[in-house]
Amino acid sequence: MLNIALFGPPGAGKGTQSKLLLEKYNLTYISTGDILREEIVKQTALGKEAKEIIDKGGLVPDEIIVQIIEKKVTMNLDSRGILFDGFPRTVVQAYILEGLLLKLNSSLTCMLSLEVPKDLLVARMLERAKVGGRADDNLEVIEVRMQEYENKTKPVIDFYKAKGNYYPIQGVGEVEDIFEQLCKTIESTISHDYFNVVLLGKPGSGKGTQGEILAKNNNLVYISTGKLLRKEITAGTELGMIAKPYMERGEIVPDEIAIKLIERQIERNPSASGFIFKGFPRTIVQAYILDGLLRRINSKVSLMLNIRLSTLDAIKRLNDRSKTERKRVYDSSTEMILNRLDEYEKKTKPVIEYYKKQSVFFDSDGSGTEDDVNARLQEAIKKGVRQVRNAD
Q1: Helices (H), 104-237
Q2: CATH 3.40.50.300 domain extents, the chain
Q3: What pLDDT score does 270 carry?
Q4: Reported CATH class of domain 197-391
């Protein structure tokens, strides 16, 4: 989804620019001010409660705001995304918005802030009062609203600056020029969206081989926790020494170690177009951890590819690998192979169900030659890309 918050002080021109953005990007429009004014005109209980507060230049309580936003979002599930005008206005509302979008398995794409000098803002609103006759556009109320903005709303800028998705836009000039700046910023933000793939499958299904090929062919960064851990063990690092006994038994290493390794790889690749994760997540807890790691870069899992392989074929492949230079410590005995397969059934299969519920799951046959498997996986990625683009 393309979710945008249009930000700025009263009189900055958010309403004018919102109309242009809605038409261009096919978004659901959520203006808390407009919705509340509709309630006031209809003289609903909500409208009467809000009118007194708005007329004094105050902010309507969050409990009311959340109700009207949830209702509006539910009624417009088919749009490309949401344009928020006048929300969030406080840091508390910023956290509320995070929660609301999380329920939609989404997040805020960008916060666009229209920057306009105070004297021009006051002049604009006084002129608007003559044309539109809004009760809250008089000098006394305007001063209150400006003060509210300074005290409560400006800290929201710091909130989104910390998240890395705050963009100031010059709000003075021709409407068309300002709109062009907004669109350029949005397009730039969209072009930096990550496409993230989780590669799962039984031990022996070929995840490592296929993961590296898929990463190369799709310009993605390959992150294999197993490969990273083996490097740490070879280098004799502290992380490697902690992980070594787990790796030798073919068991899942402590989550704290995997988190550090994945964080490090993501930080080392700030310009990546996306990541392929192999060997992580292997448990439901790790699935939640990966969601958290990706949310830190304002991203999420785009596609989960499951390489389907029978247990018998998996055992044969692992036995064959144990006789080559590619053998792993945990390929050394039938007992350890069976232990890994049993752990997969108990701990990793539920992860697949987790991603199925998010509608990012794709299943692919893992039998046949390396090229055959890769062709099927590549086709699944193409379908996943189309699905993500349609959702956006």
Answers
A1: 118-132, 139-148, 154-163, 175-191, 207-217, 225-235
A2: 2-191, 197-391
A3: 73
A4: alpha beta
